[in-house]
Amino acid sequence: MPEPTLQTQIPDTSKPAWVDQELDSLHENSEKHEKVRAMFNAIARSYDLNNRLHSLWRDTAWRKRAVLEAQVQPGDRVLDCACGTGDLTQAFARYSRAEHIVGSDYTPNMLEIARHKREHLHNRLQERIEYQQADAQQLPFEDQSFNVVSIAFGIRNVQDPDKAMGEFFRVLKPGGRLMILEFGQPSFPPMRWFNTFYCGTIMPRTATWIARDTSGAYKYLPRSVSSFKSRNEMHQACRTAGFDQIWSKPLTMGICNLYRAIKP
After folding, report:
1. d(Cα 14, Cα 142) in Å, to the nearest integer?
2. Helices 108-118 and 87-95: crossing angle, nearest 10°?
3. What is the pLDDT of residue 1?
4. Within 10 Å of residue 42's Cβ, how many Cβ atoms?
5. Which residues pair with 256 in a beta bridge?
6. What is the three-class DSSP state of 203?
7. Which secondary structure element, helix H or strand E, spans residue 111, and what is its range?
8. Best label site of 128, 174, 226, 242, fewest CB within 10 Å?
9. In 82-187, at which residue ranges do the beta strands (DSSP E only) sit?
10. Mind listing the domains of the chain with CATH numbers?
11. pLDDT by 10-residue block (mean), the chain, 264 residues
12. Residue 228: its pLDDT value, please?
């Protein structure tokens, strides 16, 4: 039986999703959700390559760490929101004993690649992975249906992150774990300066060239990091949604932050 999809019109990728004058208030943009979807549709086919190159292959280690810290138990059900091309979804299949892993994303082109990548996995891994097109702000799953919910580098791209956090809380079982990976700002001044220069100057140029991108994606992405919630604000967002036992750890000198929160 084919996997269910969210019936929405695929955005037009022939024109820019983001223009320079929108970047100063991108998180307040009322059209952010559709702009983000159009942007990721445009860059989907080069997304994995750019991730590996511009993280110096650290992104795979960050995802593996998230899986290990999720403390998945045999028989657990995992939901990987904003799964993109399925890297974290597949990491849960490889590095945990989860019974079933659902990868959900709002972007059709990203899911197309995720499904293609699944075909190259061993049959035992393929059987545990399912992909669905879904909006993180309105998940099509029953209450208390997952033991783990994860989102990697996606919470800042949601129109209303607090609404998505509420949905994560709703679909988790009591004792369930929320795992979030998100970029951050290193606290060590020389590293912070280098990261700001690299992400603000070098990466947008090289990534745009690799992707042949005209959507403005690699102008949006670094700006969305620098203007998003701090670690303290992320902790507060988790508390507001109802989570407790909130924990976070900077990875690679704070370039990435890993968060874990528990549903009481």
Report:
1. 37
2. 30
3. 40
4. 26
5. 183, 251
6. helix
7. helix 108-118
8. 174
9. 100-105, 129-133, 146-152, 172-183
10. 28-185+228-262 (3.40.50.150)
11. 44 68 87 93 95 94 98 97 98 97 97 96 95 97 98 97 98 98 92 92 94 92 92 97 98 97 98
12. 94
Per the structure block, which two tokens stand in for 76? 């657990």
Task: Count H helices and E strands in the chain, helices first.
Answer: 10, 7
pTM above 0.85, yes or no: yes
Closest CA to 264 of 150, 174, 177: 174
Burial class (CB in 10 A: 0-12, 13-18, 19+), 145: middle
Residues in the chain: 264
Residue 123 neighbours by CB under 8 Å, 6+ apart:
none
Residue 164: CB atoms within 10 Å: 25
Rounded to 5 degrees, what angle do the CA atoms 235, 250, 84 make?
Answer: 80
What's the CA gap between 244 and 51, in Å, rounded?
A: 31
Q: Residue 150's closest CA among 39, 50, 68, 57? A: 68
CA distance 126 to 137: 27
In terms of Cβ atoms closer than 10 Å to its own Cβ (0-12, 13-18, 19+), residue 205 is exposed
The dihedrals phi and psi of 49, each to the nearest 5 degrees, come to -60, -45
User: In what side-by-side order are the strands of the sheet with 77-81?
Assistant: 129-133, 100-105, 77-81, 146-152, 172-183, 256-262, 244-251
Q: Kindly give, in sequence order, each residue whose CB lies less than 8 Å from that of residue 213, ignoring residues fewer than 6 positions away.
A: 42, 43, 46, 207
Backbone angles phi, psi at 193, to 5 degrees: -65, -45
